[in-house]
Design a protein that fits this description.
465 residues, 19 helices, eight-stranded mixed beta sheet, alpha/beta, two-stranded antiparallel ribbon
């Protein structure tokens, strides 16, 4: 069971697979609901109404609105703390003591599917150094690329004010995966403008398989026709949509490209090894809880949503990125005094922003080539990390120890004083996994995922303070 759920978790990072998930899956698994009711999402921040256009100016002028919780069904964009959401004890204890406010904030911006499932294995170790937050986007959302950027900036402004310690400027890191890589780059360009420096200090950018190569990829050739409004057989529109996703696009991200991932799953289910970031009982229990919850969190992606996101997110975002890159190249060969404010900001980002680019060796996008382009043409302070044997869907999976990579790229975050040698036991015999931390021949039983030692629920009365 855990193997099946883990497969679903990893596949969900790719839009075609998320779209193909059966629409009745939630109802079929409703019996899990009572068991998982204690794992309801902790909504860190959501606005009661769609933010007015003047909100950004109000925030910058110091008019910080009172925040109220809002029913998740009425707000299609949510900002959550994934570790609090899933009852990870170290994060809950830290929240209750308010120690999280003294850590830099890391905001994860999701890929095309809008979920936060793809990097869930990485969140506990990232929580050692960061106050981890994540953006989640419902299938019903119809925000444009620019509107998504504005929501992120508004959230960060509000949250940095709320977390403010002794009137200091809050340190922020952005992490964007796939489409989120495009969006986080755009957000970084915005946050580096002078008007934000009083509130936010953007310290670094993390890009995981950034989809900035979309317009040059085979996905751009294959995906838009599948989302075409006029199917060849109207009466079979839904079946044709799903069939073409499964036969034309999904094979690009599965098959031989994910051989290492399949081998890892086999060894995890046989209790032979675990990902390097799952190195204690609390983290194994967290992995199990999230795996059990995945069928309730994945939703069928309608064709209309697929079409909107391809056009308004991927195509618009990629085109905007390419335009910015052309402008940047021209500005680099001209007098900086002759360029506008936006271009000056792009020059500043290019020259100063430390950027870590994590890519799968076998990604079909192609992320490996894109990492070379970004590190040579855009980010002058870039560090590229290649995850061996990984494709698009498994880069943040079993072989990656992301916090170790980030400690090397951003030395100032190493608050715990770790040496960076935590993953010295990675074994090729285990296809990139490590031996189990407890050497147990049978592993952890599912009922232990919710034991008092491994699970702690946030007191909801505290969340209102």
């Amino acid at each position: 069971m855990l193997m099946f759920l883990t497969i679903i978790a990893t596949l969900s990072s790719f839009p075609a697979v998320a779209a193909f998930t059966h629409p009745n899956l939630n109802s079929k698994l409703q019996r899990f609901h009572d068991l998982l009711s204690s794992c309801n999402p902790y909504i860190v921040d959501s606005l009661v109404e769609e933010p007015p256009k003047s909100l950004l100016n109000d925030l910058l002028s110091g008019k910080w609105p009172q925040q109220e919780s809002k029913d998740k069904n009425n707000d299609y964009i949510q900002f959550v703390s994934p570790l609090l959401e899933d009852g990870y004890p170290p994060a809950v204890f830290e929240y209750e003591a308010q120690h999280h406010r003294f850590k830099p904030l890391l905001l994860y911006i999701p890929g095309f599917d809008g979920t936060i499932l793809a990097p869930f294995l990485q969140f506990p170790s990232l929580g050692e150094e960061f106050d981890v937050r994540a953006m989640r986007i419902d299938n019903a959302d119809r925000s444009t690329f620019v509107e998504l950027k504005e929501r992120i900036v508004e959230y960060l402004l509000q949250e940095c004010k709320k977390r403010n310690v002794e009137n200091s400027v809050d340190k922020v890191y952005l992490m964007g995966e796939s489409f989120g890589g495009i969006l986080s780059t755009e957000v970084a360009m915005e946050l580096k403008k002078t008007k934000y420096k009083e509130f936010i200090d953007l310290k670094g950018l993390v890009l995981v398989n950034p989809a900035t190569s979309y317009l040059r990829s085979i996905v751009y050739e294959l995906a838009p026709p599948i989302a075409a409004p006029k199917p060849s057989i109207p009466v079979l529109e839904g079946a044709e949509y799903a069939f073409r996703l499964l036969t034309e696009v999904v094979p690009l991200f599965l098959g031989e490209r994910e051989h290492r991932f399949v081998q890892q799953l086999i060894r995890i289910i046989l209790f032979k090894g675990l990902p390097p970031v799952v190195n204690n009982a609390e983290r194994e229990a967290y992995m199990g809880r999230v795996a059990f919850a995945i069928p309730l969190r994945l939703k069928f992606m309608p064709k209309e949503t697929f079409q909107w996101r391809l056009k308004e997110w991927m195509e618009v975002g990629s085109s905007r990125f390419e335009d910015r890159l052309k402008t940047l190249r021209a500005a680099q060969h001209s007098d900086v005094r002759d360029v506008d404010v936006d271009t000056q900001t792009m020059l500043k980002v290019s020259e100063e922003l430390r950027t870590t680019i994590v890519v799968g060796e076998l990604d079909a996008m192609p992320s490996l080539e894109e990492a070379e382009r970004l590190s040579s043409k855009l980010f002058q302070k870039a560090h590229v990390h290649v995850v061996k044997g990984s494709g698009h869907i498994s880069t943040c999976g079993g072989s990656l120890h992301l916090i170790q990579v980030l400690r090397e790229s951003f030395p100032e975050i190493n608050l715990s004083g770790c040496s960076g040698d935590e993953s010295c036991n990675i074994s090729e015999e285990l296809h990139g996994l490590e031996p189990r931390y407890d050497n147990s021949p049978i592993g952890m039983m599912p009922w232990q995922y919710w034991s008092t030692d491994n699970y702690r629920q946030v007191d909801k009365t505290d969340l209102q303070k």
